[in-house]
Amino acid sequence: YTFDAGPNPFCFIRQEHVDEFLRLLKYFYPTVNTDVDKQVSSDADEKFSSITLPITPNVLERIVLTKIGSGPKIIS
Protein backbone atom coordinates (compact mmCIF):
# COMPACT_ATOMS: atom_id res chain seq x y z
CA TYR A 1 0.00 0.00 0.00
CA THR A 2 0.95 3.64 -0.20
CA PHE A 3 -0.40 7.02 0.87
CA ASP A 4 -1.61 9.76 -1.44
CA ALA A 5 -1.18 13.46 -0.64
CA GLY A 6 -3.36 13.12 2.46
CA PRO A 7 -4.01 10.63 5.26
CA ASN A 8 -5.69 8.12 2.95
CA PRO A 9 -3.88 4.83 2.29
CA PHE A 10 -4.55 2.97 -0.91
CA CYS A 11 -3.67 -0.55 -1.99
CA PHE A 12 -2.95 -2.15 -5.33
CA ILE A 13 -4.32 -5.70 -5.23
CA ARG A 14 -4.63 -8.31 -7.94
CA GLN A 15 -8.26 -9.14 -8.73
CA GLU A 16 -7.95 -12.72 -7.49
CA HIS A 17 -6.97 -11.45 -4.01
CA VAL A 18 -9.56 -8.70 -3.55
CA ASP A 19 -12.15 -10.82 -1.69
CA GLU A 20 -9.59 -12.16 0.76
CA PHE A 21 -8.15 -8.69 1.34
CA LEU A 22 -11.60 -7.25 2.05
CA ARG A 23 -12.32 -10.09 4.50
CA LEU A 24 -9.00 -9.31 6.21
CA LEU A 25 -9.95 -5.63 6.53
CA LYS A 26 -13.37 -6.53 7.87
CA TYR A 27 -11.85 -8.94 10.40
CA PHE A 28 -9.29 -6.52 11.85
CA TYR A 29 -11.23 -3.28 11.29
CA PRO A 30 -14.91 -4.13 11.82
CA THR A 31 -17.30 -1.33 11.06
CA VAL A 32 -20.94 -0.46 11.40
CA ASN A 33 -20.88 0.72 7.77
CA THR A 34 -23.47 -1.40 5.97
CA ASP A 35 -21.91 -0.66 2.56
CA VAL A 36 -18.82 -2.61 3.59
CA ASP A 37 -20.96 -5.48 4.89
CA LYS A 38 -22.74 -5.71 1.53
CA GLN A 39 -19.41 -6.16 -0.28
CA VAL A 40 -17.74 -8.61 2.08
CA SER A 41 -18.90 -11.97 3.39
CA SER A 42 -19.22 -12.23 7.15
CA ASP A 43 -17.27 -15.48 7.32
CA ALA A 44 -14.29 -15.05 9.63
CA ASP A 45 -11.25 -16.81 8.25
CA GLU A 46 -9.42 -19.09 10.69
CA LYS A 47 -6.07 -17.95 9.31
CA PHE A 48 -6.76 -14.39 10.41
CA SER A 49 -7.20 -15.41 14.05
CA SER A 50 -3.57 -16.59 14.14
CA ILE A 51 -2.31 -13.09 13.22
CA THR A 52 -1.37 -11.17 16.35
CA LEU A 53 -2.78 -7.75 15.55
CA PRO A 54 -5.36 -5.90 17.60
CA ILE A 55 -8.90 -5.70 16.26
CA THR A 56 -9.71 -2.01 15.91
CA PRO A 57 -13.39 -1.27 15.23
CA ASN A 58 -14.84 1.75 13.43
CA VAL A 59 -11.63 3.30 12.10
CA LEU A 60 -12.40 2.78 8.40
CA GLU A 61 -14.74 5.42 7.05
CA ARG A 62 -14.97 4.19 3.50
CA ILE A 63 -13.58 1.64 1.08
CA VAL A 64 -13.45 2.53 -2.60
CA LEU A 65 -12.94 -0.39 -4.95
CA THR A 66 -12.04 0.41 -8.55
CA LYS A 67 -10.25 -1.20 -11.46
CA ILE A 68 -7.37 0.08 -13.54
CA GLY A 69 -8.62 1.71 -16.69
CA SER A 70 -7.29 1.74 -20.21
CA GLY A 71 -5.12 4.80 -19.60
CA PRO A 72 -5.29 8.45 -20.65
CA LYS A 73 -7.54 9.43 -23.54
CA ILE A 74 -7.43 12.48 -25.78
CA ILE A 75 -10.77 14.26 -25.79
CA SER A 76 -11.31 16.98 -28.36
Automatic annotation (TrEMBL):
InterPro entries: GHMP_kinase_C_sf (IPR036554), Mvd1_C (IPR041431). Residues 1-75 form the Mvd1 C-terminal domain. This is Mvd1 C-terminal domain-containing protein.
